[in-house]
Protein backbone atom coordinates (compact mmCIF):
# COMPACT_ATOMS: atom_id res chain seq x y z
CA UNK A 1 0.00 0.00 0.00
CA UNK A 2 2.75 2.45 0.95
CA UNK A 3 4.72 1.49 -2.14
CA UNK A 4 1.67 2.16 -4.34
CA UNK A 5 1.28 5.63 -2.88
CA UNK A 6 4.97 6.36 -3.39
CA UNK A 7 4.77 5.23 -7.03
CA UNK A 8 1.59 7.28 -7.53
CA UNK A 9 3.36 10.40 -6.17
CA UNK A 10 6.34 9.80 -8.45
CA UNK A 11 4.05 9.39 -11.47
CA UNK A 12 2.17 12.57 -10.56
CA UNK A 13 5.47 14.47 -10.24
CA UNK A 14 6.63 13.10 -13.59
CA UNK A 15 3.32 14.03 -15.18
CA UNK A 16 3.59 17.54 -13.74
CA UNK A 17 7.19 17.88 -14.99
CA UNK A 18 6.19 16.72 -18.50
CA UNK A 19 3.34 19.26 -18.59
CA UNK A 20 5.67 22.05 -17.45
CA UNK A 21 8.15 21.14 -20.19
CA UNK A 22 5.38 21.11 -22.81
CA UNK A 23 4.18 24.54 -21.69
CA UNK A 24 7.72 25.91 -21.68
CA UNK A 25 8.37 24.53 -25.16
CA UNK A 26 5.10 25.97 -26.49
CA UNK A 27 5.89 29.37 -24.96
CA UNK A 28 9.34 29.34 -26.58
CA UNK A 29 7.82 28.47 -29.97
CA UNK A 30 5.24 31.27 -29.65
CA UNK A 31 7.91 33.73 -28.54
CA UNK A 32 9.98 32.82 -31.62
CA UNK A 33 6.94 33.25 -33.89
CA UNK A 34 6.20 36.66 -32.34
CA UNK A 35 9.84 37.73 -32.72
CA UNK A 36 9.83 36.64 -36.37
CA UNK A 37 6.56 38.47 -37.03
CA UNK A 38 7.84 41.60 -35.28
CA UNK A 39 11.04 41.51 -37.32
CA UNK A 40 9.07 41.14 -40.57
CA UNK A 41 6.79 44.06 -39.63
CA UNK A 42 9.78 46.25 -38.79
CA UNK A 43 11.46 45.28 -42.05
CA UNK A 44 8.25 46.05 -43.97
CA UNK A 45 7.93 49.42 -42.22
CA UNK A 46 11.54 50.28 -43.13
CA UNK A 47 10.87 49.45 -46.78
CA UNK A 48 7.75 51.63 -46.76
CA UNK A 49 9.71 54.45 -45.17
CA UNK A 50 12.39 54.08 -47.81
CA UNK A 51 9.91 54.18 -50.69
CA UNK A 52 7.34 56.62 -49.29
CA UNK A 53 9.46 59.21 -47.51
CA UNK A 54 11.49 60.03 -50.59
CA UNK A 55 11.33 63.76 -51.29
CA UNK A 56 9.30 64.62 -54.34
CA UNK A 57 11.57 65.90 -57.06
CA UNK A 58 10.63 68.23 -59.85
CA UNK A 59 9.56 66.85 -63.20
CA UNK A 60 9.28 63.15 -63.90
CA UNK A 61 12.63 62.02 -62.58
CA UNK A 62 12.66 58.99 -60.32
CA UNK A 63 14.28 58.83 -56.94
CA UNK A 64 17.32 56.67 -56.32
CA UNK A 65 15.52 54.08 -54.11
CA UNK A 66 13.09 53.32 -56.92
CA UNK A 67 15.94 52.94 -59.37
CA UNK A 68 17.66 50.57 -56.95
CA UNK A 69 14.74 48.15 -57.17
CA UNK A 70 14.60 48.41 -60.96
CA UNK A 71 11.79 50.89 -61.59
CA UNK A 72 12.33 53.58 -64.19
CA UNK A 73 10.15 56.16 -65.90
CA UNK A 74 7.09 54.98 -67.72
CA UNK A 75 7.58 54.33 -71.39
CA UNK A 76 4.58 56.13 -72.88
CA UNK A 77 4.83 54.37 -76.23
CA UNK A 78 4.54 50.85 -74.80
CA UNK A 79 2.65 51.88 -71.64
CA UNK A 80 4.87 49.68 -69.52
CA UNK A 81 7.54 50.28 -66.99
CA UNK A 82 11.00 49.52 -68.23
CA UNK A 83 13.71 47.96 -66.11
CA UNK A 84 17.14 49.48 -65.55
Key structural traits:
84 residues, mainly alpha, two-stranded antiparallel sheet, 2 helices, rod-shaped, FAM167, FAM167_domain
**What coarse outline follows from CA principal-axis ratios?**
rod-shaped
- Strand fraction equals under 5%
Distance separating the two termini: 84 Å
Overall number of domains: 2
Q: Largest beta sheet: what is the strand line-up?
A: 1-2
The number of E-state strands comes to: 2
How many helices? 2
Structural class of the helices, strands and pairings?
mainly alpha
Could you give the order of the helices and strands? HHEE
**Fraction in helix:** 55-70%
Mean pLDDT: 77
Radius of gyration, in angstroms, nearest whole number: 29 Å
Q: Uncertain segments of ≥5 residues (pLDDT<50)?
A: none
| Main pleated-sheet profile | 2 strands, antiparallel
Amino acid sequence: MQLDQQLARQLMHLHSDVNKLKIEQTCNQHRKMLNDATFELEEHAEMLDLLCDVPVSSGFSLSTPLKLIGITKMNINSRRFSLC
